[in-house]
Amino acid sequence: MRIGIGIPNTVPGTSGAVVLEWARRAERRGFAFVSTIGRVAYPSLDSLTALAGVAGATSRIGLVTNAVLGPTYPDAVLAKVAGTVASLAEGRLTLGLGVGARESDYLPVERDFAGRGAAFDRQLSYLKRAWRGEAVAEGDFPGEKRAVVPEPPGIPILIGGHSKRAVRRTVEHAAGWTGAGGGPARAEPTVKEIRAAWAKAGRGDEPRLLGLAYFSATQAENGDDYLRSYYAYAGDHADTIADGAVRTPEKIRAIVRDFEVAGLNELTFTPTVADPDEVDRLADLVL
């Protein structure tokens, strides 16, 4: 099980200095990667911009978006921004992508919420072509096409979501899959579907299967308020997510085993409070 830790880019009050200190500590303590969560219509730090800063503040640790809402970006912009972060990180970026479930994230960027699935399918094909260095954008002269990234960055993709479409996209386009909040029990059925579809498609490599656990090693209750705010759109399910956060040493250690039993091979602990000492507290428990 590869274990990473989220940076608190969506936790209220998080500063850029906290993000960079958090990432430096995560690298020193031996986490496999740092990850972000993110959405548009929330007062948070942007995932890819934050990871660009993290890339400059670290040298070895992996970087994972978990997950960027792909269709909220124009295809060429996402290809260029992700390619830039991958270049700054010298190949350490994994791009987790999904479509999201909140219409409020699509309204500010004037993108079509109802058509996001079809847009995402087109975008995934576009990204692969752009990152191969193919000419995908109109140039300065009639009929001219140009690439949008200076060199093929080779960015692994993880697909988020629990639908049949998410399973298909994972097998067709990605290095693996990433699950949102909800715990091992919610992830397990999708993991089984992906493993079966992966084998049927003849993919010989092992899929990356990333779980997410919200945590607070200080048992801070204000973390519950943040999660209920972040997932307010989900109604009563926001309480389920908040109640599922792990806050004691016993539960933090146990959830690693639970995700492993459910068939996942990577796990990110996503913070609910923005105290950099949480990095060391978690490391002492799970590394």
Characterise the protein shown here:
Keywords: Flavoprotein, FMN, Monooxygenase, Oxidoreductase. Pfam families: Bac_luciferase. It comes from Amycolatopsis carbonis. GO terms for molecular function: alkanesulfonate monooxygenase activity. The protein is of the alpha/beta class. The protein has one domain: TIM Barrel (Alpha-Beta Barrel). It has ten helices and ten strands. It has an eight-stranded parallel β-barrel, surrounded by seven helices. Strand 5 and strand 6 form a beta hairpin. Helix 2 packs parallel to helix 3, helix 6 packs parallel to helix 9 and helix 7 runs antiparallel to helix 8. The longest helix is centred in the last third of the chain and has 18 residues. It is globular, with a radius of gyration of 18 Å.
Brief sketch in words of this structure:
The protein is α/β, with parallel strands linked by helices and 287 residues long.
Blueprint (SSEs and pairs):
Elements: E1 2-6, H1 16-29, E2 33-36, H2 47-57, E3 62-69, H3 75-88, E4 93-98, H4 116-131, E5 137-138, E6 145-146, E7 157-160, H5 164-173, E8 176-178, H6 183-200, E9 208-215, H7 222-230, H8 236-243, H9 249-261, E10 266-271, H10 277-286
Parallel strand pairs: 1-2, 1-10, 2-3, 3-4, 4-7, 7-8, 8-9, 9-10
Antiparallel strand pairs: 5-6
Helix pairs in contact: 1-2, 1-10, 2-3, 3-4, 5-6, 6-9, 7-8
